[in-house]
Amino acid sequence: MADVPMYETVAWAKKSAADKFEKITIKRNLPGDDDVTFDLKYCGICHTDVHIANNDMGNTHYPCVPGHELAGIVSAVGKNVTKYKVGDKVGVGCISDSCMDCACCKDGDEHFCANGFTMTYDYDIKHGHMATDSGYSYGGYSASQTVNQRYLIKIPDDYPLEKAGPIFCAAITMYSPLAHWKVKEGGKKVGIIGIGGLGQFGVRLAKAMGNEVYAISTSPNKEAAAKQAGADNFVVSTDADSMKSAENSMDLILNTVSASHQLAHYLPLLKKDGTLVQLGLVLTDHQVQQFPLMMKRVSIAGSLIGGMPETQECMDFCAKNNIVPDTKVVKADELESVYEALSQKNDSIIRYVLDISASQ
Ligand SMILES: [Zn+2]
Ligand SMILES: [Zn+2]
Question: What distance in angstroms lies between residue 283's CA and the mean position of ligand 2's atoms?
Fold first, then answer.
């Protein structure tokens, strides 16, 4: 897709880690036969955005336009597109492209694409289904986006557009393991470790599926929020008695903790054949002794967002069950203070959402 026709749109970018956000003009590809262009209305602000925009991993491309929780209204469709029409509410999450050809893509697990999926921002564009003037992806802090129809999610008409973005990142991260480890039909005991942006979705989803939910947190003051989200039980992970009271009880535990920790601390909570799923971005090692695994035949696993069909399923499930995140809508000139707040503290239940129309 080297020489495709492009259009200009505005975006909010950082030109270096030290710079503040500023409004710039970028170019994206005009919609090809299989593409959809949409006017962005809102984009969720994820904690990951802060890390990438600030070059915490050391490999950020600049100018950097973050945002992988996009929600907007279709403005143009290619001639092969039948599922979407102008005026539809749509979204894009973390995945904007993949090879479409490997076994994982064929299974609808684009997030495990053997040739590497293209993340919605700050990723080299290599599969040829999208283009920008820089050769790497620009995210959703922008007035317009074009993607292949495969990477779009249809937002149900009655779902509030400003609340949809976090579904494509936080909610799907929790939904996918709940589906994979078969607690979607309910009747199981599910633990959710960490009651922040991810955890609140975990509690709400697991509960809506009909499970008994244990919220697990280091801080006793999260109990009210956890119970409000629907948790049946609350476990303080730093309190030995509280942990003891929940021993051998859970079929599945989703661990959202992104700070350095030891996963073995939570294994006693699992019942026979239970699974602990690691979801946080923890880069330090865990020390695990195998004896506790053997004695209850428990598993330790990991999970990452979800593929496109499952993300749509998650969106539809949230709409049907009225699972709506707590959000705070902000404008582009508030990005610095939002980033500051997210850097200070990462366990808030509130998801910030950038109002694109109000920022222009
Ligand atoms: Zn995210
Ligand atoms: Zn693939």
Answer: 25
